Amino acid sequence: MEYVYAALLLHSAGKDVNEDGIKKVVEASGVAVDDVRVKALVAALEGVDIAKVLSQAAVMPVAAAAAPAAAAAAAPAGKEEPEENKEAAEESGVEGLGALFG
User: Which tens digits make up the pLDDT trace of 11-29?
Assistant: First the structure.
């Protein structure tokens, strides 16, 4: 994860996201650098418009967070969800984490 953070830091600073820059940022954080991971990240980011991806990613969580908030506001006050709905929501959250970490 620190490699992705390093790439994002370089991007936000207006620097080129390249192997040397990522290595320097990761080393500065006190983490031992794995050259294979650095090369893999740089190769994966080749041709990717990071600004566009970040702008699209920023829109999705806001829309996803707005739906449950609207549903909660529409629900009558003082009435609790049935146990089934709580379990389904919990399972969907776990599935989301599984997708995030592969």
Answer: 999 999 999 999 999 999 9
